[in-house]
Amino acid sequence: MANKTVKVMLYSGGMDSWLIDKLWKPDLRIYVDMHTKYSEEEIKKIKLLKDDVKIVDFPLGQYEREDAIIPLRNLYLIMVACNETLSDNVEICVGATAGDRSLDQSETFFNKAMDILNYLYSPQHWVPNGKHIKVITDYRNKTKAELLRMYMDEGGSIDKAFKESLSCYNPSEDLEECWNCKSCFRKFIAFAYNGYEFDKDVLAKNLKYFNEHIKEEMDSKEIYRTPKEDEEIRTVITNSKKRLEE
User: Fold this and answer.
1) Which H or E element spans position 212?
2) For position 225, what pLDDT does the model report?
3) Residue 241 — φ and ψ, nearest 5°?
4) Given the DSSP bridges, would you call strands 28-33 and 5-10 parallel, antiparallel or unpaired?
5) Structural domains of the chain sorted by starting position, each given as residue range(s) with its CATH number in brackets
6) Kind and range of the H or E run holding 107
7) Residue 6 φ then ψ, to 5°
8) Quick one: average pLDDT of 143-162?
């Protein structure tokens, strides 16, 4: 196993990691239980689907902010992934997509992380052969809608993708998606843009979220996230308004 490249997926069961898992086909999937306010529901979903995912306990939730951001999260997660295989060659994929604005999801961060990890895993007394680590960013420039389209183009089911992925900061047993958080809104945009049929109640909730949390910022900037994701948001919002007026 020492010379085999092992593909490690940092898997959350959210939309991005669910889709990338199907496209990238990793050798090992790791769910890091950070003990966040949404970890319990994520783990429940993974176990319900009987996914072959290794669950690693790492309580980063103690640093979780009110907005669900955990500072340095992806740096911690990449380091955990490095230690989950004995292979000398490791490829690690993080579910980052276009429009992700935190710096620990940027190309610059991933390159710097690779530099420091490859330096620390240089040949030395405790790791004589060293270890080569590559952080995969193949999907970094794809929007969530484009990622979903790639999966569908390979024969994937949009219904399966929607039902089996969980992207929500406030999930519950009764209602997996709260439709009142950034994560839910971005999932809504991706699926609606690709033709998924939502009922009018969900359309209304997402229009409300858009008007209260996104519209003002979009209107005040030439580019809100990326030109492509901005176009997707505007298209879906326009179509949703028309449906609600029918």
Assistant:
1) helix 200-213
2) 87
3) -60, -40
4) parallel
5) 5-136 (3.40.50.620), 168-245 (no CATH)
6) helix 107-120
7) -105, 125
8) 97
Contacts of 132 (CB under 8 A, 6+ apart): 88, 89, 90, 118, 121
Give the count of beta carbons closer than 10 Å to the beta carbon of residue 132: 16
How far apart (Å, rounded) are the C-alpha atoms in residues 72 and 197? 36
Residue 174, pLDDT > 70, answer: no
Q: Is the pLDDT of residue 2 over 60?
A: no
Q: What is the pTM of this model?
A: 0.90
Would you state the structure tokens that stand for residue 32, as one six-digit string? Answer: 């890091």
Do residues 137 and 97 touch, judged by C-beta distance below 8 A? no
Position with higher pLDDT, 179 vs 96: 179
- CA atoms lying within 13 Å on the CB side of residue 11: 27
Residue 113 confidence (pLDDT) above 90: yes
Of 19-28, 98-107, 160-169, 170-179, the least confident: 170-179
Residue 113: name the closest of 90, 147, 97 by CA.
Answer: 90
Tokens read off for 40: 């319990």
Supply 107's token pair: 């190309």
- Token readout for 192 is 């609606």
Tokens 């949009």 sit on residue: 158
Cα dist from 46 to 32, 41, 136, 160, whole Å: 12, 9, 23, 14
Pull the structure tokens for residue 133. Answer: 């680590």
